[in-house]
Structure formats: structure tokens, C-alpha cells
Write a structure and sequence with these properties.
The chain is α/β, with parallel strands linked by helices and about 425 residues long. The protein is about 45% helix and about 10% strand. The chain is built from 18 helices and twelve strands. The strands form three sheets. An eight-stranded parallel beta sheet has the order 4-11-10-9-8-7-6-5. A two-stranded antiparallel ribbon has the order 1-12. It has a two-stranded antiparallel sheet with strand order 2-3. β10 (about 335-340), α17 (about 345-355) and β11 (about 360) form a beta-alpha-beta unit. Residues about 415-420 have low confidence and may be disordered.
Length: about 425
């Protein structure tokens, strides 16, 4: 039989006092800055992606979002990070956790840089200007692509206080390549990335279906797609015509440009040639085996970036994160190793560093931020990654990047792989 108890005073019905209602009724202040409000509410790179998709026409969005053929490489790269389990240490004082580290003699605020991206101003008109400024403000590297839509000199002028790197695709026209390298040095770039995994263009099927090209072609389909994205088209039509700043205003699809201009005869001896004329740090990007990683160092590279080009070249390529521990073991602790592909969270950055990376590069995350809100969107993306990385590091019981080791992560097997196919 239930015992009868008096009703606690806290549960007795009453009319709410006005002062209590005032505490509860805290409405957002009205604002005309819709973009700023949406960016402030975004709590992950995935949410920035949702904003970006709403604001950007299908062809440029799919150029960023897609990968080669069946997009298996991209899916596996993302799953590699999701399948990691952290091994936290507890009862550590993590009051002063610090993400800063040093790369090629320069201190950066966290072990991440903005990867080189092509067609960038087509995604959002601020393009490389937004990326370089946001990176400089955050204190991290910005990498300008040969396929960029802002020139070496313009980016250097726009972000003179930034740690600006230049990424080189070696062309069939060696004199033109040499001129680019010399321009980069003259403009103040001191780190040169040579991408080595693009002998020919990968089969990016979304781009083929969308007829993606630079400049974009106006068809009934693209006009209809633009009808509910007026801000993008206003920016596109009222700013300088899009072109590849380093390609003498060449136009065409990505595959056409790559196959017409890039050199499929690139060999390790070409790394020697670049090494002889580049006085700064030389980084080879696109390494996907232990042996090739060793060989580029033998030919003069100062560091490497393990990458399968964001899954945009060879589908079913090796997963860079899986390759990382083997390469670190083979090359030793003194070689600078970067990694990209699949990074969408600050926790991914911490995992990569724990497994042996000195730094990471983000490409799609950068583009999602750019498409979501220009420079402010890129800055918000970097803030999100910083918050996530700092929180992950502290919850793992770690105060600095140097303290991270492979013991902090364990590989697991995902039970929901198909749910992450995005």
C-alpha cells in the first residue's frame, strides 16, 4: 500500500512570477546578417556543408563534394577516422592544453593548413583571398594551387603576414613551370608543394554529369539551378571573370585542362630539377607507398604529404591515415610528414598527429566554410576545428601536440559504414 506523502512546495501549482518569465524569455536580437547568424549556429563542418549546399549551384558544389568514379577512396578515408577509438588518460592537469607546433621552422597555432584547391573563386567569389586571410588570422599555413583563381602576387599582397605556400603541378612546358617557381620565390613563398599523383586526370563523374567547366557555361539547367541561389550569381556576374590565374586564362573542363597541360612523363628526376632551382623547403604531395616516400626524400624533398588527392584521382587508392604509421616508422622521427584526405573534425587532426603526422591539410572542410560564408565561413570552420581538437586533446589527458603518441588511438571496425556514405 502506497504511503501518503505531502506535496513538496516545489511541485505545488502557482502563477509564474513576472521576474521568472523575464529570465526565461530571452529572444534573439533581430539581425539582417543572416549569413553571420547561420555561421554562428554551425557546430560542425558537416553543418557548414549543409549551408554551403543551399547557397551554391550544383556543379561547383559537386566539384568540391565529389571524388573519382564510385568515390570509394573518399568514403574509406573518412571511415578511417571514424573507425578510430581514443584511449584517454585521466587525472591529468590539462588546464593549459596548447595545439601550437612548429613546421619547417615556423610556429603555427594548430597542426592544420588550408590545402591547395582549384576553381576556388567559383565556389564563392572571395576564393583564395578569403582562405589566405582567414589562415593568416588563425596563424596557420595557406597553400595556393597552380589551378587557383588568384595569382601568386595577389595572394601574397592580400595576406602579407600569412604563412603562404605554393603548390606546383609540373607542366609539359618546363619553362612555364620554371617561371611559376621563380615567381613564387620572388613573391615571398618559401614552401613549395609538388603534387606527384596527377599524371592524368581522374574520372570525376559528378563533374562529367554536370558539364562542369571554367568559366561556367550558362544553360537552361544552370539558370534554373541559379534561380534560388541569387547571391552566388550576383557575385559571379559582378566580379572579375573567373580564370586560372597561372594558366593564361585557359578554359575547359578539369580533365581537359589536366590532360592538355600536365606532364604524364613526370619522374623522380624531375624532383631533382625542381630541387636545383628552388631554394626553400620542397614538399612532395600525393605519396601513397612507403617506397615512393623514401625515394622523393632521396631526390631532395624536405618533407612529404601522404595523400590520395582527396579521393579525386585513383579510386580505391590507399587510405593516407592507414599508411601513416608505416611511413613514419620507415622514415624516422626527423622527416616532416603531412597528411590529408578525409579530415572533417578536429578529432581527426588529433588522431592523425597521434599516428605520426606533423601536420594535416584540409581541403573540402575549407571549401565548405568558404561556400557557407566567404572569409567568415572559413574562419568559422577553423574555429570549429580548433575547438574540437583542443577538447579532444584535453579529454585524452594531453597538454601539447608533442605528447600525442600511437598509444592514444586504437583502430576499430565500424558497424555503420554505409550510414556515412555522404
Amino acid at each position: 500500500m502506497a504511503t501518503s506523502r505531502p506535496t513538496p512546495s516545489a511541485l505545488k501549482r502557482r502563477f509564474p512570477p513576472v521576474k521568472d518569465l523575464k529570465e526565461l524569455m530571452k529572444f534573439e536580437k533581430p539581425t539582417l546578417d543572416i549569413t553571420g547568424r547561420k555561421l554562428a549556429k554551425a557546430t560542425s563542418v558537416w553543418e557548414l556543408r549543409q549551408i554551403a549546399k543551399r547557397r551554391t549551384p550544383k556543379a561547383p558544389f559537386d566539384y568540391v563534394d565529389g571524388a573519382a568514379e564510385n568515390e570509394i577512396s573518399l568514403h574509406r578515408a573518412r571511415m578511417a577516422y571514424r573507425d578510430l577509438e581514443f584511449n584517454p588518460g585521466v587525472l591529468r592537469d590539462v588546464t593549459d592544453a596548447d595545439l601550437s607546433t612548429e613546421i619547417f621552422g615556423t610556429e603555427i597555432s594548430m597542426p592544420v593548413g588550408l590545402a591547395p584547391t582549384g576553381f576556388t573563386r567559383m565556389m564563392q567569389t572571395e576564393g583564395e583571398y578569403a582562405g589566405s586571410a582567414a589562415a593568416a588570422d588563425k596563424g596557420i599555413p595557406f597553400c595556393l594551387s597552380t589551378m587557383g583563381t588568384a595569382s601568386l602576387e595577389d595572394v601574397a599582397t592580400h595576406a602579407p603576414d600569412g604563412d603562404n605556400w605554393f603548390q606546383l603541378y609540373l607542366w609539359k612546358d618546363r619553362e612555364a613551370s620554371k617561371d611559376l617557381v621563380q615567381r613564387a620565390w620572388a613573391a615571398g613563398y618559401r614552401n613549395l608543394i609538388v603534387t606527384v599523383d596527377t599524371a592524368i586526370a581522374g574520372a570525376r563523374l559528378r563533374d562529367t554529369r554536370n558539364g562542369f567547366s571554367i568559366p561556367p557555361q550558362l544553360t537552361w539547367k544552370t539558370v534554373l539551378d541559379a534561380s534560388y541561389r541569387p547571391a552566388w550569381w550576383f557575385n559571379f556576374l559582378t566580379t572579375e571573370q573567373l580564370s586560372f590565374a597561372s594558366l593564361s586564362r585557359s578554359s575547359g573542363t578539369v580533365a581537359e585542362l589536366v590532360n592538355r597541360m600536365f606532364d604524364p612523363a613526370l619522374t623522380f628526376e624531375d624532383i631533382d630539377w625542381i630541387r636545383d632551382m628552388w631554394p626553400g623547403n620542397l614538399i612532395a604531395k600525393g605519396l601513397q607507398t612507403v617506397d615512393d616516400s623514401r625515394r622523393v626524400l632521396d631526390h631532395g624533398a624536405d618533407g612529404i604529404i601522404l595523400s590520395n588527392h582527396g579521393g579525386r584521382q585513383l579510386d580505391r587508392a590507399p587510405v593516407p591515415l592507414h599508411l601513416l604509421p608505416k611511413v613514419r616508422e620507415a622514415l624516422g622521427e626527423d622527416v616532416t610528414i603531412g597528411v590529408d584526405t578525409g579530415i572533417m573534425d578536429g578529432a581527426d587532426i588529433i588522431a592523425a598527429v597521434a599516428l605520426g603526422a606533423d601536420f594535416t591539410l584540409v581541403g573540402r572542410a575549407y571549401m565548405y566554410g568558404l561556400m557557407a560564408g566567404g572569409q567568415r565561413g572559413v574562419a568559422r570552420m577553423l574555429d570549429i576545428l580548433e575547438e574540437q581538437a583542443t577538447r579532444t586533446m584535453r579529454l585524452c589527458g594531453v597538454n601539447s601536440i608533442d605528447e600525442l603518441t600511437p598509444d592514444h588511438v586504437t583502430a576499430t571496425t565500424s558497424q555503420a559504414a554505409s550510414g556515412y556514405w555522404i
